[in-house]
Every structure is written in C-alpha cells, then in structure tokens.
Amino acid sequence: MWYAFSFFSVSVKQEDVRRELQDEGRRQREQRPSDLEHRIKIVLIECRMALPGAQALLGFQLANVFTQGFEKLPRSSQWIHFGSLLSTMICTILLIAPAPYHRIAEGGEDTEHFHKVASRFLLGALVFLAPGMAGDLLIVLRKSAGHSFWLVSRRDCCWPRFMGCDLG
Q: What's the structural domain count of the chain?
C-alpha cells in the first residue's frame, strides 16, 4: 500500500512538472521576437560592428594628410589617397545612416521597408570600404616597392584580373 501511494504521488508531481514546462515554453514562444524584428536587429548590429573599423581607417587617412611624408608622395599617389579618403568617408556615412533613419523616418517601428533600406545602406557601405582600403594599400605597395611594383602591376593588369575581367 505504501508503494501504491508513492507511485501515484510521483506521477502527479511529474504531470505538474510537465504542465509547468509546457506553460513556460509557451510563454517563451510568445515573448520571442518576430522574424522581422530579429532581421532588423541583425542588420543594425552588423552596421555597428563595421562602423568602428571604418572610423579608425578614416582617422588614419585624415592623419596621414598632415604628415611630412605625404608632401613627398607623387601627385598621383596623393590623388589616390584622396579617392580612398572620400570612399571611406562615404562608407562611414552609410554605416551611420540606418539607426537615425529607423528613428526618424520609421518612427522606431520595425517594417519590411526599413529592413530593405538598412540592408542596402550596409551593402553600399561595404562597396565603398573596399576601394578605400585598396587605394591606401596601393600607395603602401608603391612606396615600399618603388617603381618596380607599378610597372609589374601595369603589365600584368592585376586589378582587372582580380575583379574577374580578363583583358588579355
């Protein structure tokens, strides 16, 4: 008889525990953010992740203009640096833009339109970040390798081939 009592009390407790777990799971599903809300959060996080790198690059590019070595660069390298600086500045603006756009234009509401706009801002920013970095890399390679790098890169047409356009 004692065994029967303990058996029934355990099964009642297990049923209560099972019911509590189901209720808790239901509450968590109801509190879970929607798919749209999650996608918007991801896009904004990605913008926040890329922004410090772009700002640091922009700061270094601006600081380089005021060094004495910048004046000694050939005029073509200075123009390449200017193009890189401009490209990085546009990238930084595009990375900053989604958050205020969400607040001002959308009123803080999560909409499919905002997700498209924020995604396009992010992709556009990354498109402008690439030439910003590549231009300064070209200047560093020209400076360190001298004229030999410039002649080799012209002859081999490394950039068009790298971008998938075979010229030869």
A: 2
**pTM greater than the 0.70 cutoff:** no
- d(C-alpha 132, C-alpha 80), whole Å: 9
* DSSP codes of every residue in the chain: -HHHHHHHHHHHHHHHHHHHHHHHHHHHHHHSPPHHHHHHHHHHHHHHHHHHHHHHHHHHHHHHHTSHHHHHS-HHHHHHHHHHHHHHHHHHHHHHTHHHHHHHTSTT---HHHHHHHHHHHHHHHHHHHHHHHHHHHHHHHHHHTHHHHHHHHHHTHHHHHTT----
Please check whether residue 93 lies inside any domain of the structure: yes
* Joined tokens for residue 14: 């297990």
Query: Residues 25, 45: one domain?
Result: no
Domain that holds residue 13: 1-32
For tokens 């050939």, the residue is 74
The string of pLDDT tens digits covering residues 88-122 is: 999 999 999 999 999 998 888 888 999 999 999 99
Q: Are residues 12 and 47 in the same domain?
A: no
Higher-pLDDT residue of 151 and 78 is: 78
